[in-house]
Design a protein that fits this description.
It is found in: Cell envelope. Pfam families: Beta-barrel_YknX, HH_YBHG, YknX_C. This is Macrolide export protein MacA. Belongs to the membrane fusion protein (MFP) (TC 8.A.1) family. It contains 6 helices and 22 strands. It has 436 residues and is of the alpha+beta class. It folds into 4 domains: 84 residues, conserved putative lor/sdh protein from methanococcus maripaludis s2 fold (Beta Barrel); 99 residues, Elongation Factor Tu (Ef-tu), domain 3, CATH 2.40.30; 61 residues, RNA polymerase II/Efflux pump adaptor protein, barrel-sandwich hybrid domain (OB fold (Dihydrolipoamide Acetyltransferase, E2P)), CATH 2.40.50; 118 residues. The strands form 4 sheets. It has a 6-stranded antiparallel beta barrel. Strand 18 and strand 19 form a beta hairpin. Helix 2 packs antiparallel against helix 5. The longest helix is centred in the first third of the chain and has 40 residues.
């Protein structure tokens, strides 16, 4: 019996060994078949079709509504507000008196300026058009000066002879020479005065007199302007949007007193981020929304983009670089008021028929834009020329045709010529992702 048991154990061991070998062969064949299957299936990739469709892209910013046309009234001297005739919201017409300021001593300054102008003008007229008696007086003065000079010259000659004879001292000769020099100068001045009286001032003298008259005239104009500014007048039809002072207030020079404007003509000023500013240009369409009118959307166009950037303060007391933009309203502006804060959506891209691919399909390597295109389950790397980019799509200008199948977010191990397996609606893999 013991012998039978040993034989039974030997037979069972052989069967078990055979079973293990058979199982190993089956597993190996299955693994080989799976590997071959994977090799034939290729790398799984997410794909999309190139298509022609309208594309749009927008730049967003916040702005403030302001009057297109307005008049700000300031005072040009420190004074007191005497009276105000309008309040915010009042309709006004061009030329209407809005208020009065105390003229202080401006009336006296105007009178002084007018007197000075009359004096300067009289001096010029006298120089150009002298009276006969004035000419006669000037000629008599000239003749006296001539006689005095001749006598001084004779006295000098006589003294010089006496000095040479030793009859007078050197001091006497010097005094005689000095007297002759003085009388000669007076004689020349008298001659110039007579010439001016007879012919009028010429050259520099005439220009100097005319300049004094012109300066006096400008002083009169300025004094009149300052006095007129104490009467606050509307220079346009519009509405009073702000009154900054009250009757009786003492105001320093340069204080803003009130503002009027045309409430029917509004515009929006905004600051666009430095990164987006290069995409803006005049004429682009703008959608405008305001918190005060949540159920309305207004429209406008970009009127101007500043050629210079500015540093704007942020809510965190920091600063950021922005480019000022002005948007012209092109719609019914009912409900909008100057000073409102609004949100802007500036349409920077608007094409009806553009060949596009998903933004994630385009790669860049050494300045070249490239896309993987699937041809017969094989990935082919192609160079493309791109146009505008939006948040979702990139425009293709050349290198692809409508209906081409492209790889979206290709993994880093994907290379030109590799076999791939198109996986519909599979999210892009982050493993090994790269930008070429």
């Amino acid at each position: 019996m013991h012998l039978n048991l040993q034989r039974l154990r030997k037979v069972s061991g052989k069967k078990m060994l055979a079973g293990v070998l058979i199982l190993g062969v089956i597993v190996s064949m299955a693994a080989l078949n799976l590997a071959r299957s994977k090799k034939q299936a290729g790398i799984p990739v997410k794909v999309a079709k190139t298509e022609i469709k309208p594309i749009q892209d927008n730049v967003f910013a916040s702005g403030r509504v302001r009057l297109t046309q307005k008049q700000e009234l300031y005072n040009y001297t420190s004074t007191t507000v005497r009276e105000l005739f309008v309040s915010p919201g009042d309709q006004v017409q061009k030329g209407q008196v809005l208020g009065l300021l105390d003229p202080v001593d401006l009336e006296d300054k105007l009178n002084e300026a007018r007197v000075n102008f009359n004096v300067q003008e009289s001096n010029l007229n006298k120089a150009i058009y002298p009276r006969d008696e004035e000419v006669a007086q000037e000629r008599a003065s000239y003749q006296r000066a001539e006689a005095d000079y001749r006598n001084a010259q004779k006295e000098y000659e006589r003294t010089k002879v006496l000095f040479e004879q030793g009859a007078v001292s050197a001091k006497d000769l010097e005094d005689a020479e000095l007297e002759k020099t003085v009388k000669e100068a007076e004689y020349k001045r008298a001659g110039e005065g007579l010439t001016m009286k007879e012919t009028g001032p010429t050259g520099h003298e005439r220009e100097s007199l005319q300049a004094q008259v012109e300066q006096a005239r400008l002083q009169v104009e300025q004094a009149e302007k300052n006095l007129n500014r104490t009467v606050l007048r509307a220079e346009m039809d519009g509405v009073v949007t702000a009154v900054e002072v009250m009757a009786g207030d003492f105001v320093q020079m340069g204080t803003l007193l009130m503002t009027i404007g045309d409430a029917g003509q509004l515009e929006v000023t905004a600051g666009v981020s430095e990164a987006d500013s290069g995409r803006l240009m005049p004429g682009q369409k703008v959608a405008i929304t305001a918190a005060a009118q949540p159920n309305r959307e207004y429209t406008g166009i970009v009127q101007s983009v500043s050629p210079a950037a500015v540093a704007a303060k942020t809510a965190e007391n920091g600063s950021q670089i922005e480019v000022p933009v002005i948007v012209k309203m092109e719609c019914d502006i009912e409900g909008l008021r100057p000073g409102y804060t609004v949100d802007l959506s500036i349409n920077v891209v608007d094409k009806e028929n553009a060949l596009v691919v998903p933004y994630e399909a385009v790669m860049e390597k050494e300045g070249l834009k490239q896309v993987f295109v699937i041809e017969n389950q094989v990935a082919r790397l192609k160079d493309v020329a791109t146009g505008v980019d939006t948040a979702l799509f990139t425009e293709i200008l050349s290198g692809l045709s409508e209906g081409d199948t492209v790889v979206v977010s290709p993994i880093g191990t994907l290379m030109d010529g590799m076999r791939v397996n198109e996986i519909a609606n599979q999210p892009p893999s982050n493993e090994g992702a790269t930008t070429l």
